[in-house]
């Protein structure tokens, strides 16, 4: 009888320990620690670090996507590394170095295919999300001389497709990956000079690529791709003095707030407001510096903006109701990235030169938490698993 009670007690102990270690994947996120090649796994509801995972290579321009069940994070490193991280077991599940210089990636609508966009060699590679087996390679060949272009602005789109842009090639590619071993590519040429990044509207309808080599954006209607790519905002700021661009602006899906797009203006200290119905410029909002990220709170009421050097210690908040800057914050030196909690009550900021992550309440603008981190850059929450284009 005594032995039975001992075994029962041990079983209870191990069961209690297992319950204590359980994590809800919807509560998880990843902070990139760029200089140490590591990531922190974090709890987003009760801000704290759960673990640190090392050995991820060059994370100087890293980005992350999540599996549909939110258990795995796929980290795209600048050195061409593609790493699959198990967020529940705090370990690298699988890692491959698939190129010499990589700039990001995406996961397919069904969660089965990982696509990676590469600078060197220029192109897109497709991988099995479970095993990281390479399924296909699509060289970004353009022009009569078959040159290779850097690939930027890669996003997932409905219908088992990916969309990307060729920086030197001045093209947008629509990749049908329903059969990922034999992808079909539709190429749109001469779309504008030097597309540098792109956004997909949250409904997956439009793909808009920013142009570094000329004014305006290139717009592709994914519901009607046969209509080709059209230019929008060709004339904005053409008579304004162009200021130095210290860091290329980034376009992301969260720059869409309701029926409006909020876009960083290249070479100007402005955020552009675009009406999604007719793609006309609605407003030019003056801000303190050159915007890098222009990100909308999930309810679309606020847009938060961070800036390139020498103004990268500042964050400004725009009220979408009247397009006014309603708050200017000084979180610290080098605010590199922001991420909203799934319902938008909080925003997390990576403050690289202060070696910390800071959390702010989006209504009161008060700081609510800070976490130590080693030169943090990107912050990514697992709710991205359920959003197109991120």
From TrEMBL:
UniProt key word RNA-binding: no
Keyword Signal: yes
N-terminal signal peptide: 1-20
Keywords: Signal
Pfam entry (one): Cytochrom_D1
InterPro entries: Cyt_cd1_C_sf, Haem_d1_sf, Host-pathogen_enzymatic-act
Protein name: Protein nirF
């Amino acid at each position: 009888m005594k032995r039975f009670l001992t075994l029962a007690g041990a079983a209870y102990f191990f069961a209690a320990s297992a319950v204590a270690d359980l994590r809800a994947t919807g509560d998880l996120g990843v902070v990139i620690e760029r200089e140490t090649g590591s990531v922190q796994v974090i709890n987003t509801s009760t801000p704290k670090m759960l673990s640190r995972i090392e050995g991820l290579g060059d994370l100087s321009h890293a980005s992350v996507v999540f599996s549909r069940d939110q258990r795995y994070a796929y980290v795209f490193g600048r050195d061409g590394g593609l790493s699959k991280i198990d967020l529940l077991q705090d370990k690298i599940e699988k890692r491959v170095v698939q190129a010499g210089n990589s700039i990001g990636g995406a996961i397919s609508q069904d969660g089965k295919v990982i696509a990676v966009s590469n600078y060197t060699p220029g192109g897109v590679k497709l991988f099995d999300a479970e095993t990281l087996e390479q399924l296909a390679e699509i060289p970004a060949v353009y022009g009569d001389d078959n040159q290779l272009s850097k690939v930027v602005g890669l996003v997932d789109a409905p219908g088992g497709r990916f969309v990307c842009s060729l920086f030197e090639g001045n093209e947008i590619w629509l990749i049908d990956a329903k059969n990922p071993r034999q992808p079909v590519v539709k190429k749109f040429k001469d779309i504008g000079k030097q597309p540098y990044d792109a956004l997909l509207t949250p409904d997956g309808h439009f793909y808009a690529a920013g142009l570094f080599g000329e004014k305006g954006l290139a717009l592709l209607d994914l519901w009607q791709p046969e209509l080709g790519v059209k230019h929008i905002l060709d004339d904005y700021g053409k008579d304004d003095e162009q200021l130095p661009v210290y860091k290329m602006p980034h376009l992301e899906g969260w720059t869409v707030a309701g029926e409006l797009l909020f876009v960083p203006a290249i070479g100007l200290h402005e955020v552009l407001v675009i009406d999604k119905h007719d793609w006309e410029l609605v407003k030019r909002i003056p801000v303190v510096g050159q915007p890098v990220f222009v990100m909308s709170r999930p309810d679309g009421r606020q847009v938060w903006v961070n800036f390139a050097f020498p103004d990268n210690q500042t964050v400004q908040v725009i009220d979408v109701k009247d397009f006014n800057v309603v708050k200017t914050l000084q979180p610290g030196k080098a605010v590199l990235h922001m991420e909203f909690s799934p319902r938008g009550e909080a925003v997390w900021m990576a403050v690289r030169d202060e070696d910390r992550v800071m959390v702010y309440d989006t209504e009161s603008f008060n700081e609510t938490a800070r976490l130590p981190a080693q030169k943090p850059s990107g912050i990514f929450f697992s709710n991205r698993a359920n959003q197109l284009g991120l």
